[in-house]
Design brief:
Blueprint: E1 11-14, E2 19-25, E3 47-54, E4 57-65, H1 66-71, H2 76-96, H3 98-101, E5 120-121, E6 127-128, H4 145-156, E7 170-175, H5 180-188, H6 202-207, E8 210-213, E9 228-232, E10 237-250, E11 259-272, E12 278-281
Parallel strand pairs: 1-10, 7-8
Antiparallel strand pairs: 2-3, 4-11, 5-6, 7-9, 9-12, 10-11
Amino acid sequence: MASATTAELFKPIETTHAAFIEEIYKGIGMYQLIGETTVVPLQTPSARNKVTTYVNDYASSVELSKNLFDDNLHGVWAKTVEEFALKARVSQNYNSMQIFRGAFTTVLTHDGYALISASHALVGGGTASNVVTSPASVANGALNSDTLNYAFTNLAEQKDQAGVILGNTPKVLLVPPCLLKKAVELTDSALIGDSANNAINFYRSALGITVMTSPYLGSVAGGSDTAWFVLADNHGITRLIRQGVQTALRSWEMSNNRSYLYQANYRESYYARDWAGIVGSTGL
């Protein structure tokens, strides 16, 4: 089960400021063949497309009368404390998965395009796509053994900002709950999951990819029941942490209606620094 604290999905960065500013690093090219006395080729790294991410503040509070607090009638106070902890985690998980719910539309990377797009501009020149399109052998981009293989190929052949193919290895297959059974069958069955042939499942024996899901990816949570993603180690999806969950209790003596006020907040943001290291399909 994926969550906001899953490091394979959200790379944590701690900050002491209200905003985090960074630029996209272009990188350098590959080594070149030279002669014995040839001048060594000079690489010129650069950075462009400044990105500023502001830290969001999430908070909640509840007010309880002094009598209800003191007597803990019906276990309300104990349940409230438990609920505060639970809803903090739920809020983090729901808000973090917006990165994937909006990956094809509203979540933009440094180049101004959606996280999953066919039109990403490389800093070193040219364009790249991280959309899992349909191979000729299938009708659409729905999750199956053919499209999954196509996604792995796309990921392996992705270029970095300098135009160098890095050979990314898939690590995580992220799916909504509706596709979890399908994803596990495709990647963990001893034999091919969607075929009648008695063949070894390549995805299990050669890759060892981890399948993850979240209830906040599907259509019930405002996402999609067909979209899916494959991530490598070098993806740029980030969890920017300013402050963990903090709680405070104001005593009834500080109120004018003899009530306690219990409140909590945390400060963090989720964003896609770069599109490299991830591919995705709408499944349609």
